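yo, Transposase is done. seq:
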Amino acid sequence: MLGTLPVMLMQPQFLDDLSAEQLREMTTRLLTELRHSQALNAKLTHENALLKRMKFAAQSERFNAEQRSLLEDEIEADLAAVCLEIEQLQPAAAAPQAKQQPKRQPLPANLPRREIRHEPDSTTCQCGCQMKRIGEDVAEKLDYVPGVFTVERHIRGKWACAQCETITQAPVEAHVIDKGIPTTGLLAQVLVAKYADHLPLYRQESIFARAGLAIPRSTLAQWVGTCGVRLQPLVDALKAEILGHRVLHADETPVQMLKPGKGATHRAYLWAYAPGAFEDMKAVVYDFCESRAGEHARNFLGDWKGALVCDDFAGYKALIASGVTEVGCLAHARRKLFDLHAANKSQLAGFALEQFAKVYDIEREVKELNADQRKAIRQQHTKPILDALHQWMTLQRQKLPDSSATAKALDYSLRRWTALTRFVDDGQLPVDNNWIENQIRPIAIGRANWLFAGSLRAGQRAAAVMSLVQSARMNGHDPYAYLQDVLTRLPTHKASRIDELLPHRWQPTDI
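structure:
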């Protein structure tokens, strides 16, 4: 709006067609948008200056060498992301500021090369003369197919018309990183290695060095930061689709986050949300937040009202109070009794576990049925088991002192019985929260390699890329093939059709 209205306002006819009330409304709207853009620009500029100070102060911080390497990676990535966001805020007509580019080292001569020629569709000039080829421009990009580095030589022939002195060259399609050396194949490899294989950039730098490629991790970090910004619209679209489902799973896991300037970390959390296990969409979206406060779940879900499968964490209680339907996790209730039985071979816990096993036997049988069939079988077979179990638990609890471990294990189930058994009356609800726990497991595995998230922005970027990587896996796609194709198509893909690139709808280009 800000880019088109000022031009229209300069046209007298346009102003004449507007009433005084319309002019006042337009002025108010333009001022609001301008203030918002100015505030966002000021915020990003401040963050950019802060990151630069952190970058040059990082070596004086009291971290060990490995910690400093991880921090410097994230600062470079954050700087690249912030700079790109500031650039996107600038008016389209504004002339880009010239900045001195560092001289790029030539790619190793021993690498295999593949020539990609770009020539005009026609070499006949508009004046009717046949143009002559007078030269060419060559740009080399470093490509990566798993296990093999190659060089793409993009050759753009120059064609000139002797009659009217016109020079023609075939255009090259837009790239995720304009004028950079990496192809989308190499970018996909760096992202998959970092966010799926949990290889920090300093390790990737060493791997590339062994192949004879001196790619500084600061450069790798800039690529990661830029790709994070470019991929964010996909994650936003994925979140919007997830929130369109009636049944959602939610879970969270701790991740250490660095507090720059203090030389210490604190516990942040990665939240995970996914459509119900019986929903037709397979996807997960991670949300990195500074704490486990319930406000983060409320901010993510917004006005969503549906059935939320979750554990007994207090942070979800405000959502339940606002109209979200709580669906308990039978696996959590079973786990309390399993721990009790494992500790002292409790006969009471053993009997309860046998009843839970009967419920899970039924669930395995109804897994592939539709919701109505699943509900009918649950009503006929599962409900009597759970009703009898509830009555038995209630009687047993009356015989136990409040301080006993058995009483506490029973209280967990009795206190949440309505939520735990809600699946019996709704065939679309799962029996437990294991679906989302399986999607958050890769995060728990990767923590040993991360050590910590370097910043809030770095954690949010990791959450975004990992959302796409894990969602691709859930749909049977190779994350490398998915990211390589999506990064190739994104620069020219219409924003209105972004849903076509989501992991559960994606089709490779060659199909």
